[in-house]
Amino acid sequence: MPIRRLSEDMVNRIAAGEVVERPASVVKELVENAIDAGATRIEVVTAAGGAALIRVTDDGGGMGPDELPLAVERHCTSKLDGGLDDIRSLGFRGEALAAIGSAARLSVASRKRGAADAFAIEVEGGRITPVHPAALGAGTRVEVRDLFFATPARLKFLKSERAESSAITDMVKRLAMAHPGIRFSLAGADRTAQDFAPATGDDAELRRLAAVIGPDFRDNAVAIDALREDVRLTGFAGLPTYNRANGLSQFLFVNGRPVRDKQLTGAVRAAYSDLLKRDRHPVVALFLALDPSQVDVNVHPTKAEVRFRDPGLVRGLIVGALRQAFAGSGPRASTLAADATVAAFRPEGTRTATPYPPLSRSDGGGGPAKPVEGAREMPYPAGLAEPGQSPFLAAPSADIRPRETATPAPNATHPLGAAVAQVHDTYVVAQTPDGLVIVDQHAAHERLVYERMKANIDRGVARQILLIPDVVDLSAGDVERVAERADELAALGLVVERFGPGAIAVRETPSMLGHVDAAALVRDLAEEFAEWEAGPTLRDRLDRVASRMACHGSVRAGRRLKPAEMDALLREMEVTPNASQCNHGRPTYIELKLADIERLFGRR
Ligand code: ADP
Ligand code: MG
Predict the structure, then answer these.
(1) Are residues 221 and 250 in the same domain?
(2) Residue 489 in 3-state DSSP?
(3) Can you give the pTM of this predicted structure?
(4) One domain for residues 146 and 79
(5) How many Å lie between the centroid of ligand 1 and the Cα of residue 69?
(6) Residue with the nearest Cα to atom 7 of ligand 1?
(7) pLDDT digit string (tens) for 20-59?
(8) How far is the CA of 104 from the centre of ligand 1 (A)?
(9) Within this chain, do residues 175 and 226 fall inside the same structural domain, yes or no?
(10) Which among 24, 87, 141, 256 could bridge 57 via Cys, Cβ 3.0 to 4.6 Å?
(11) Measuring CA to CA, how many Å separate 342 from each of 8, 420, 488, 522?
(12) 286 and 422 both lie in a single domain
């Protein structure tokens, strides 16, 4: 076959395949155009998951009749003034409208700001109609019907109407988060309508984020604002205890552009690495701002991936800023815990799902908590006799140990209050100036040991010599893995050596762990090492080993604490970074304000 030049229409269709992957990408392109045009209101209407109709209306600067034919033509843009190194608008490739016009029935109506009349142009499967007068008050209205009718192969790849519709919702949400000052509305027969009112003022960003992510986010996030060289990171990071089962609530933006970028999500993951179990995911909305010359947004036609000139800098900024923010935020309990506690006392049906995986020491949990056995057998009257209470009634009151000495009055410098009792030898109850906290002594102590260990890594962790070395039988592979890391383990206070082909001898253990079961510790570490195919950095490795070790050295649930020990635990939690959650992202304590308690008793 001879070489032939592709027709304009064919070129557009090929491009359309890249720019317009699915209805949500059309929405993205059209909304970004509206933002670039300076709109303050953007309205999106869809039908059949966007396959039948996508209509985006804005009140931006609009286009005149002479501009409309150019707008729908390929490689025509009003935005590439400064060249590819200086991209300040969301669009710049000048191919979205042309691509959409080649794959669907496109109609663009627009009225240039200050002009008396509006005009429109249509494109159907690549055929452009002449510009004609239209009726439109202001701004631009772009309508896309029968997406992919001209490219049936692509049509087949559309997911269910529901899936496409929710992808559109997700896209609009991301764009709305990045532009809190713009009013966004989303409607259509295929969805529940959403409306994000424009947010202004100091906390505009957080208000918009809460509107999109959920009202809880406001009370469960820490503000981030950090600068490294000329790269600025702002936004909000959810408390580690405010976590989710999937990664869908990680919203990342580069220069106002929503991106899904592996490097960035990897950095977020690393920032939460020892605050969250690996199968739980944080909730973040982070905005990177940097000089356009420092980032290439032109890696992919949909611009979802970006490439940084200095990726190490960006990663370091994200990891550093988030860790610092958590460590510096002091003890902070997730409000979800209090809400869940209050809800647990409420009649069946008015409860919300528990936000945490169940507390199972062996596997760290996963999945929602199961209701109490038999709880659903008969209807209970609302109020006291409801099933959520039975586990409490089952506990013998003799198991509650009030402290024998007088309780010191709680004061404001001790946010975790004064210990009043230990319950079931597992939980410490403390009175705070405006409520009470319940501390999970094992989880809390584990965190304290871990943080202490990390703080001592560089100085060398103090160790104690075992009178008789502990010999641990292991598989040959495990012996190999443990022996290989003997130096790193020594830095953490664990001195081991090979003991024949099938065993490891433990000679010294970290003092701060106290009396530990060395065999269980080494087996646990061997298991941890076996998971390390990907080769974490040295610092990560030390942290992870420290985390495993901490678990072995902790005050186990079931140990009786003296009043002074309870108070010491609370005081240490107050000054230890990240003490509000265990290494798996579960809370180490929950706080009930008097207001919560009043809610329980129906006083509010
Ligand atoms: P790009 O956004 O990359 O420039 P598009 O194909 O998306 O390419 O749009 C082409 C041009 O049409 C834009 O550069 C802009 O001048 C104009 N345009 C598109 N949508 C709008 C709109 N909603 N309001 C005003 N002008 C628009
Ligand atoms: Mg565009």
Answers:
(1) yes
(2) helix
(3) 0.70
(4) yes
(5) 11
(6) 96
(7) 889 999 999 999 999 999 999 999 999 999 999 999 999 9
(8) 17
(9) no
(10) 141
(11) 64, 21, 46, 41
(12) no
